[in-house]
Structures are given as structure tokens and as C-alpha cells.
Amino acid sequence: MPDLKLIDISVAHLEPVSLDVKAGELVCISGESGSGKSLLLRAIADIIPHEGQALLDGQSSLSMNGPKWRSQVALLPAESQWWDDSVASHFVNSNQEYLTDLGLSEEAMTWQVSRCSTGEKQRLAILRLLNRTPICLLLDEPTGSLDPQNTERVEALITKLCKEQKLPVIWVSHSNEQIQRIADRQFKMQNGRLVEHEQ
Amino acid sequence: MNNSVIPLSTIDLSLAAGLVVVLAVLTWYLRLGMSQRLVVAGIRTVVQLLLLGIILKYLFESSHPLLIGLITLVMLAVAGREVMARQQRPFIGLWGYGLGTISMFISSFTITLFSLNLVVNPEPWYLPQYSIPLLGMMLGNTMTGVALTLDNLTNQAWQQRAIIEQRLMLGDDWHTAIKDISRQSLRTGLIPIVNAMAAAGIISIPGMMTGQVLAGSSPFDAAKYQILIMFMITAGTGFAAVIASWLGAKRLFDERHRLRLERLKPKAIN
User: Fold this and answer.
1) What interhelical angle do B128-159 and B94-104 show, nearest 10?
2) Which among A47, A72, A74 has the least Cβ separation from residue B165?
3) CB atoms within 10 A of CB A24
4) What is the predicted ipTM?
5) Rounded-to-integer distance, Cα B25 and Cα B35, Å
6) What are B209-235's pLDDT values in tens digits?
7) pLDDT at res. A104
8) What is the pLDDT at residue B3?
9) Mean of the per-residue pLDDT values for chain B?
10) Chain B within 8 Å of A45 (Cβ-Cβ)?
């Protein structure tokens, strides 16, 4: 089972973070804007230089190349980016089994990116991430621009995948209600330190 | 065919210089903030070309291979500096200078050697009357192509940071993550030379052909030389741009395939 283990991960002003996220466990992180939540996720995904190391299933990120690590430990940024006109060209295979789970139309793969709403783009970005079949998820405010109904859909899908496929998940959220609904454990980023909060 | 060139006197050149002075006054009047640069550039043209004339005269008389080698290295060094100066965000450190210089060196020198030994065949092959002007034209054009390519590459990478990182987050390698930007920067670098080839002879009579005709060569021979030069320049610019774009793109990432924009100098504020 893939556990995510962080050993003294530190970057910029963040104090070293050590944390174990078990397979099938969903950990929420909250904290003020600019407190370093996204920075921590970026360090775990090895998008930026950092101290310390991350291990997945006992294997250090340094034991494999960057792309291999990031295809397993997938980071969803708060704001999704699109580099081509059509939605379909951002997907590596045509198997979109979670399309309806996310409340997207069957035709979504024929859409142009420029015609998608912010909420549609956010759900398509989640779909795109899952399309690469990662085994650990780092989600930076995945429901930030979604209405309650779609927020519920994303929460249901991610918690289902987390439990059924035993994925370790770190979810950054600003909503206490959401954290109460989905988190197995919750942490808060305060003054550059990650502090555990009792449920 | 009349083989003598009408020599230009100092007065002839002063008349032409007068035109640039008029332009400088006009730009001052229009407040373009360019008059000083225009005058300095004009003075540089006079000094540099006269010096070049003196050096080439000496070089053609001596034809010493070491001296020719030295001159070509100086030309390369200056071209490398120019490539760096034309970029808004060059790489920090030696890379800023080295990247363009290496690309131009590999491409321009190889193509010039190829042309001298397999096409033109002067005796000896490094005969300065051929090697120096050929290399000069190669470097002059390659320089523009490489500068445009690198400038576009680094600027686009800076602006599209979020997109590149998004692709890296999805598990793409550096090459895939910057593929579109690399292609676009290469296109930008190649456009001037492709346009020049398409326009040659119809919209413009290229400089070298003009020079040869003025010096009394047959227009047909001059045209053939110009064709050779155009092809050499195109190939040279193309290869140099490909090398520069690849090396530049690679340098934007580290061994963990992370985008490292801090390797670029911040844009200077004008």
C-alpha cells in the first residue's frame, strides 16, 4: 500500500515538515493565504527545490527522476492551466470513467477550453489529473470555484478513490465545513509551522 | 566589364553623414529619445568599418593562418556579446554569454568551413579574401537568428511559467513541458532569414551582390555568389537557432526537471 512519508521537508520560510499520510487517508491542511500551504505541496511534488525528502511506498523521490515521481504524486494547482485549444488534447487517453461522477457532460471531450466556465475547467483539471492514474493526490483547493452541488461531487469522488484505491491524499481547503466532512486528520499552517488540530 | 571602383572621398562620406545628422535632429524634434543613440551608432559605424578596412588590408597582405584564426575568434566573441545584449532576460553567469556563442560557433564555423572546402575552393582554403567576409556574413545573420530565438524562448518561458509547471505537475518531462514554446521561439528566429530568401532580388538587392556589382563583377556571377551566401546563411541560422533553443530550453530546467527561472536575469527596467 502506498503510504506518503515526509521527512523534514522544508522550503523558504517553512519550518521542516515531517508527516505520514497512510494509504487511504485523507489529510486536510488549512491556513491563511500566503502561509505556505501551496509551497509545501509544490515541494512534495518536487516542482521546486527543497530540503528533506518525500517517500511513497518506501521509495524516495530521489530514487526516480522528477517526471516519474510527479506522475505518481500528482499535484492539482489551485488554478488550472491549459496549453491547447481543445479539451481533449490535454488528456493522455480517452478513457474518461469519472466524467459523470464530476457532473460533466459526455460531450466534454469535444469542448474548446476557451468556452469552458471556471468551474468546468476546475472539474476537467481534476479529470485530467486522474486520467494519468496517480497513486497519491495533492489537491490545492480543488473545489475553490465550484458550486455546492459540484463541490459535493468532487468530495464524493475523491474520498471514494482515497478509500477504495487506498490513495494517500493531501487536500488544502479554506472551508471548515468541508474539512469536517472529508478529513481523516487536519492540520493548520501557522507562522510557517504545520500544526495538527484535533477533529 | 569595367573593373575599377569609383573611390569615395571624405567629402562624399560627409554628405552621407549629413543625412544621418538630419535624421538625428528629426528624432530629437519628435522626442523619440533616440538622437544620441543614433549619433553614437553612426560614429561607431565609421570607426569600426575604417578599422576593419585597415585590419583586412593588413590581413590580406599577410594571409597568416594564425592571424586569420585570431580575427575569426574576435568576430565570434563580439557576436556572442551582441546576442546576449539583445536579450531581455539572458541567463545569469557564463551561460548568458556562452549559450549564444557556442551555438553560433558550432553552426557558423562548420558551415563556413564546408563552403570554403567543398564549394568555393580558394587556395589556400583559409584565404582571407574569402574566409573573413563569408564568416562575417554568416555570423552577422546567425547572430540575429540566435538572439531572436533565445529572447523569445526565455520571455515566453517567463510568461508561461504556470503552464510549464502545470505540465510538469502532470508528469511531463522538461522537453514536453516546453515543447510548444521551443517551437515558437525557433519559428521566430527563422522568420527573418526565410523572408530574406523569399524577397531576395525582387524587393531587395542583397548587400553583398550590390557590393560585387559596384566593384565591377558581372551581375550574373554576383547573383551566384549571393545564392550561395543566402543558402549558407539560412542553414547556418537554422542550425544555430536549433542548437540555441535546445541548449536554452535545457538550461531552464534542472536535473529533476524543475523549471528554474531564477537562472535568468530579471528584465531591466527602461
Assistant:
1) 130
2) A47
3) 19
4) 0.95
5) 7
6) 888 888 888 999 989 988 988 898 999
7) 94
8) 56
9) 91
10) yes
Query: Searching chain A, which residue's CA lies closest to the CA of residue B260?
Result: A48
Closest partner residue to A77 (CB to CB) among B160, B169, B173 is B169
C-alpha cell, B266? 530579471
pTM of the model: 0.87
| Rounded alpha-carbon distances, angstroms, from residue A126 to A42, A79, A142, A161, B201 | 17, 11, 8, 12, 56
d(CA B44, CA B50): 10
Counting as low any pLDDT under 50, the low residues of chain A are none
Contact list in B for residue A68 (CB cut-off 8 A) is 171
pLDDT at A199: 65
- Report residue B157 as a C-alpha cell: 518561458
* CA–CA dist B264, A153 (Å, integer): 43
Query: Among A29, A25, A21, A23, which Cα is nearest to A54's?
Result: A21
**Alpha-carbon gap: A151 to the closest alpha carbon of chain B (Å):** 22
Q: What pLDDT digit, counting tens, does each position of B145-168 carry?
A: 999 999 999 999 999 999 999 999
Helix or strand (DSSP H, E) at B28: helix B10-29
CB contact under 8 A, B172 and A81: no
- Matching residue, cell 565609421: B46
Please give the Cα distance from B86 to B147 (Å, whole number). 6
Interface membership of B203 toward A (CB under 8 Å)? no
Q: How many CB atoms lie within 10 A of CB B151?
A: 20
User: How many beta-carbon pairs below 8 A join chains A and B?
Assistant: 58
List the one residue out of A62, A53, A73, A63 whose CA is nearest residue A10. Answer: A53
Q: How far apart are CA B206 and CA B201, in angstroms?
A: 7
Q: Quick check: A79 and B162 CB within 8 A?
A: yes
Task: Give, for A41, the enclosing helix (H) or strand (E).
Answer: helix A37-44
Backbone angles phi, psi at A33, to 5 degrees: -60, 135
A170 in B contact zone (CB under 8 Å): no
- With CB atoms and an 8 Å threshold, state whether B162 touches A77: yes
Q: How many residues does chain A have?
A: 199
Structural contact between residues B220 and B126, judged by C-beta atoms closer than 8 angstroms: no
In degrees and rounded to multiples of 5, residue A28 shows phi and psi of -105, 140
Alpha helices in B160-258 (DSSP H): 161-169, 174-177, 179-199, 207-214, 219-251
> What residues of chain A, 110 to 129, have a C-beta less than 8 Å from chain B?
128-129
